[in-house]
Specification:
The protein folds into two domains: about 200 residues, Triger factor/SurA peptide-binding fold (Orthogonal Bundle); about 100 residues, Glutaredoxin, CATH 3.40.30. The protein is globular, with a radius of gyration of 24 Å. It has about 300 residues and is α+β, with helices and mostly antiparallel strands. The chain is built from 14 helices and nine strands.
């Protein structure tokens, strides 16, 4: 073999090493956009043993563990879960990673080893959120913005009730971000082969297809028999005709598509979610939304008939 051939092979080896090193540290959202929307959005793809789906130090999740969790779910949604295993994986990972953080915190605080999990979690949350408060200006602003809801009640009468409500909302917002940011605090690797297979299933639904179409989209999550949802039906039908070829208008029945609804954080209905041309969420509204309000929001997005 001549020296030029040897030199060529060495270059190939270097290139391969570079490729595998890069892919091993690649953010998963870059290669599989939208696969994870929570904590695992910050995970990296990597080459892992076939049976290992996720590796985060002490926390490892295998396909066997995932399959066991699927069997625990209600029979009527098992088929949906199987098509959205990444959603189940994210929930399992978050649960185990947060529990690991709580245990490490308990050790650092030298807390009673016999304290049950719920009590430990409460104390952990109390410490995390201890400094969260709201200013008098925030309380006053909330009152002024929601005067109609207070039906003429004076500020002094409702102030004691507003403050704890706002503090609780701030705590919930903080905890949501804290959980989602666990992928920034812990290095999480997800099996690349597994992610690739799951991505094909993840985007095979009306919402993801609309988001990838290159057109703005409005997705209404609701259910038949729900009063405000049924009021949205004729509006959506009108909009489909008026914005045909311009905007994707989709309705998702969350009773029939529970996992898809959960993936998009739908906890009450109806919910209207607006996505821009790039598939990014632009605006979200909970409850009945009049047609003129929808049109106004579409105009904000730069959509004109």
């Amino acid at each position: 073999m001549n020296k030029y051939r040897i030199f060529h092979l060495v270059l190939i080896q270097i290139a391969l090493i570079s490729i595998f090193s890069t892919s091993g540290n690649a953010n998963i959202d870059k290669y599989y956009p939208g696969l994870f929307n929570g904590a695992l959005k910050h995970a990296i793809i990597g080459i892992l043993p076939n049976e290992v789906i996720l590796d985060a130090g002490e926390v490892k999740i295998t396909q066997v563990q995932l399959d066991l969790e699927v069997k625990k779910t209600p029979a009527n949604i098992q088929s949906q879960i199987k098509d959205n295993l990444f959603f189940l994986l994210e929930n399992m990972a978050v649960d185990q990673l947060i529990n690991a953080e709580i245990k490490a915190w308990a050790v650092s605080k030298k807390l009673d080893k016999n304290m049950n999990g719920q009590a430990l979690t409460r104390k952990y949350i109390e410490e995390l959120t201890a400094k969260i408060t709201v200013s008098p200006d925030e309380v006053k602003e909330y009152y002024e913005s929601n005067k109609d809801a207070f039906r003429g009640a004076k500020f002094a009468d409702v102030e004691p009730y507003i403050k704890p409500q706002l503090v609780n909302e701030k705590k919930q917002e903080f905890l949501g971000k804290y959980v989602n940011d666990i992928g920034k605090r812990v290095t999480i690797k997800v099996n690349d082969n597994w992610a690739k297979a799951q991505y094909a299933k993840a985007i095979n639904n009306p919402v993801n297809k609309a988001r990838k179409s290159g057109k703005p989209s409005l997705v209404d999550f609701g259910a038949s028999g729900c009063g405000p949802c049924d009021m949205m039906t004729p509006i959506l039908e009108q909009l489909k005709k008026e914005y045909s070829g311009i905007v994707n208008i989709e309705f998702i029945d969350v009773r029939e598509n529970q996992i898809l609804g959960a993936r998009y954080g739908v906890s009450s209905i109806p919910v209207q979610v607006f996505f821009d041309r790039n598939g990014n969420e632009f605006y979200r509204h909970i409850g009945f939304l009049p047609k003129n309000s929808i049109i106004a929001k579409l105009k904000e997005m730069g959509v004109n008939k």
